[in-house]
Amino acid sequence: MRLVDQLLEEYGSSHQNATNKLIHWFCVPAIMFSLIALLFAIPFFTDRSLMANWAFIFLLGAWMYYARLSMAMLIGFMLIGSIFLWGAASVYLSLGADAGKLAIVAFLIFAIAWVGQFIGHKIEGKKPSFLKDVQFLLVGPAWLLSFIFRKMGIKY
Predict the structure, then answer these.
(1) Span between the terminal Cα atoms of the chain, in Å
(2) Gap between the Cα atoms of 136 and 118, Å rounded
(3) Rounded to the nearest 5°, which phi and psi values hold at 63?
Protein backbone atom coordinates (compact mmCIF):
# COMPACT_ATOMS: atom_id res chain seq x y z
CA MET A 1 0.00 0.00 0.00
CA ARG A 2 1.28 3.47 -0.87
CA LEU A 3 2.33 5.80 1.95
CA VAL A 4 -0.44 8.30 1.10
CA ASP A 5 -3.08 5.55 1.35
CA GLN A 6 -1.68 4.30 4.67
CA LEU A 7 -1.67 7.79 6.19
CA LEU A 8 -5.16 8.65 4.96
CA GLU A 9 -6.52 5.33 6.21
CA GLU A 10 -4.95 5.77 9.63
CA TYR A 11 -6.17 9.37 9.86
CA GLY A 12 -9.64 8.34 8.73
CA SER A 13 -9.90 5.69 11.45
CA SER A 14 -10.33 8.42 14.07
CA HIS A 15 -12.71 10.42 11.88
CA GLN A 16 -15.75 8.19 11.36
CA ASN A 17 -18.48 10.22 13.07
CA ALA A 18 -20.45 12.39 10.62
CA THR A 19 -20.50 15.39 12.99
CA ASN A 20 -16.75 15.19 13.54
CA LYS A 21 -16.19 14.97 9.78
CA LEU A 22 -18.38 18.04 9.21
CA ILE A 23 -16.53 19.98 11.90
CA HIS A 24 -13.24 19.06 10.20
CA TRP A 25 -14.47 20.46 6.87
CA PHE A 26 -14.66 23.89 8.51
CA CYS A 27 -11.94 23.74 11.13
CA VAL A 28 -9.05 22.19 9.17
CA PRO A 29 -9.09 24.91 6.47
CA ALA A 30 -9.56 27.56 9.18
CA ILE A 31 -6.52 26.24 11.04
CA MET A 32 -4.50 26.11 7.82
CA PHE A 33 -5.42 29.68 6.94
CA SER A 34 -4.81 30.99 10.45
CA LEU A 35 -1.41 29.29 10.67
CA ILE A 36 -0.37 30.83 7.36
CA ALA A 37 -1.64 34.23 8.54
CA LEU A 38 0.21 33.90 11.87
CA LEU A 39 3.43 33.03 10.06
CA PHE A 40 2.86 35.90 7.62
CA ALA A 41 2.62 38.27 10.59
CA ILE A 42 6.07 37.38 11.95
CA PRO A 43 8.70 39.93 10.89
CA PHE A 44 10.88 38.75 8.02
CA PHE A 45 14.33 39.77 6.82
CA THR A 46 12.87 42.01 4.13
CA ASP A 47 9.59 43.78 3.56
CA ARG A 48 6.73 41.31 3.43
CA SER A 49 5.64 40.13 0.01
CA LEU A 50 3.89 37.00 -1.22
CA MET A 51 7.20 35.16 -1.45
CA ALA A 52 9.24 36.91 1.27
CA ASN A 53 7.64 35.82 4.53
CA TRP A 54 7.67 32.93 6.99
CA ALA A 55 4.37 31.58 5.68
CA PHE A 56 5.89 31.01 2.24
CA ILE A 57 8.90 29.27 3.82
CA PHE A 58 6.51 27.00 5.75
CA LEU A 59 4.54 26.28 2.57
CA LEU A 60 7.71 25.28 0.73
CA GLY A 61 8.36 22.67 3.43
CA ALA A 62 4.75 21.48 3.39
CA TRP A 63 4.84 21.21 -0.40
CA MET A 64 7.93 19.02 -0.17
CA TYR A 65 6.02 16.77 2.24
CA TYR A 66 3.04 16.56 -0.13
CA ALA A 67 5.37 15.83 -3.07
CA ARG A 68 6.43 12.69 -1.17
CA LEU A 69 2.78 11.64 -0.88
CA SER A 70 1.67 12.25 -4.46
CA MET A 71 1.98 14.74 -7.30
CA ALA A 72 -1.78 15.34 -7.27
CA MET A 73 -1.64 16.24 -3.56
CA LEU A 74 1.30 18.54 -4.25
CA ILE A 75 -0.57 20.37 -7.02
CA GLY A 76 -3.73 20.59 -4.91
CA PHE A 77 -1.85 22.04 -1.97
CA MET A 78 0.18 24.41 -4.06
CA LEU A 79 -3.15 25.85 -5.19
CA ILE A 80 -4.72 25.85 -1.71
CA GLY A 81 -1.57 27.17 -0.01
CA SER A 82 -1.23 29.94 -2.58
CA ILE A 83 -4.86 30.97 -2.08
CA PHE A 84 -4.44 31.01 1.70
CA LEU A 85 -1.19 32.98 1.41
CA TRP A 86 -2.87 35.51 -0.86
CA GLY A 87 -5.76 35.65 1.63
CA ALA A 88 -3.39 36.30 4.54
CA ALA A 89 -1.65 39.05 2.59
CA SER A 90 -5.04 40.56 1.68
CA VAL A 91 -6.21 40.54 5.30
CA TYR A 92 -2.87 42.08 6.31
CA LEU A 93 -3.35 44.90 3.82
CA SER A 94 -7.01 45.39 4.77
CA LEU A 95 -5.87 45.86 8.38
CA GLY A 96 -3.61 48.72 7.31
CA ALA A 97 -0.52 46.50 6.91
CA ASP A 98 -0.56 46.00 10.68
CA ALA A 99 1.07 42.64 11.49
CA GLY A 100 -0.11 42.84 15.10
CA LYS A 101 -3.74 43.08 14.06
CA LEU A 102 -3.27 40.23 11.57
CA ALA A 103 -1.75 38.10 14.33
CA ILE A 104 -4.73 38.79 16.62
CA VAL A 105 -7.27 37.89 13.93
CA ALA A 106 -5.29 34.77 12.97
CA PHE A 107 -4.89 33.68 16.59
CA LEU A 108 -8.63 34.05 17.22
CA ILE A 109 -9.45 31.93 14.15
CA PHE A 110 -6.79 29.40 15.19
CA ALA A 111 -8.11 29.10 18.76
CA ILE A 112 -11.78 28.83 17.75
CA ALA A 113 -11.00 26.23 15.08
CA TRP A 114 -9.00 24.11 17.53
CA VAL A 115 -11.84 24.26 20.04
CA GLY A 116 -14.08 22.99 17.24
CA GLN A 117 -11.63 20.19 16.43
CA PHE A 118 -11.53 19.03 20.06
CA ILE A 119 -15.34 19.17 20.28
CA GLY A 120 -15.47 16.99 17.16
CA HIS A 121 -13.07 14.49 18.67
CA LYS A 122 -15.01 14.48 21.94
CA ILE A 123 -18.12 13.59 19.91
CA GLU A 124 -16.10 10.98 18.00
CA GLY A 125 -14.73 9.51 21.21
CA LYS A 126 -11.22 9.29 19.80
CA LYS A 127 -8.11 11.44 20.29
CA PRO A 128 -6.85 13.62 17.43
CA SER A 129 -4.35 11.75 15.24
CA PHE A 130 -1.62 14.35 15.66
CA LEU A 131 -1.31 13.40 19.34
CA LYS A 132 0.12 10.09 18.09
CA ASP A 133 2.27 11.53 15.28
CA VAL A 134 2.77 15.21 14.48
CA GLN A 135 2.84 14.55 10.72
CA PHE A 136 -0.93 14.06 10.93
CA LEU A 137 -1.21 17.86 11.16
CA LEU A 138 -0.32 17.78 7.46
CA VAL A 139 -2.33 14.63 6.73
CA GLY A 140 -5.62 16.22 7.89
CA PRO A 141 -5.76 18.64 4.96
CA ALA A 142 -4.77 15.82 2.57
CA TRP A 143 -7.59 13.70 3.99
CA LEU A 144 -10.11 16.41 3.07
CA LEU A 145 -8.53 16.89 -0.34
CA SER A 146 -8.75 13.15 -1.00
CA PHE A 147 -12.57 13.39 -0.77
CA ILE A 148 -12.58 16.25 -3.29
CA PHE A 149 -10.24 14.34 -5.61
CA ARG A 150 -12.42 11.21 -5.47
CA LYS A 151 -15.55 13.26 -6.19
CA MET A 152 -13.81 14.82 -9.21
CA GLY A 153 -12.36 11.50 -10.40
CA ILE A 154 -8.77 12.65 -9.83
CA LYS A 155 -6.34 9.89 -8.89
CA TYR A 156 -3.98 10.83 -6.13
Answers:
(1) 13
(2) 15
(3) -65, -35
Residue 132 has pLDDT above 90, yes or no: no
3-state SS assignment for residue 136: helix
**C-alpha span between 72 and 117 (Å, rounded):** 26
Q: What is the mean pLDDT of residues 117-144?
A: 90
Neighbours of 109 (CB within 10 A): 19
CB 7 within 8 A of CB 142: yes
Q: What is the pLDDT of residues 6-21, one digit of tens each?
A: 999 999 999 999 999 9
Nearest to 138 by CA among 80, 51, 52: 80
Residue-level pLDDT at 107: 98
Contact indicator for 80, 28 with CB cutoff of 8 Å: no
H runs (alpha helix) in the chain:
3-13, 18-41, 54-69, 71-94, 99-124, 136-152
Is residue 114 packed enough to be buried (19+ CB in 10 Å), middle (13-18) or exposed (0-12)? Answer: middle
The SS3 of residue 20 is helix
Domain layout of the chain by residue ranges: 32-41+49-150
d(C-alpha 11, C-alpha 145), whole Å: 13
Which of helix, strand or coil describes residue 52? strand
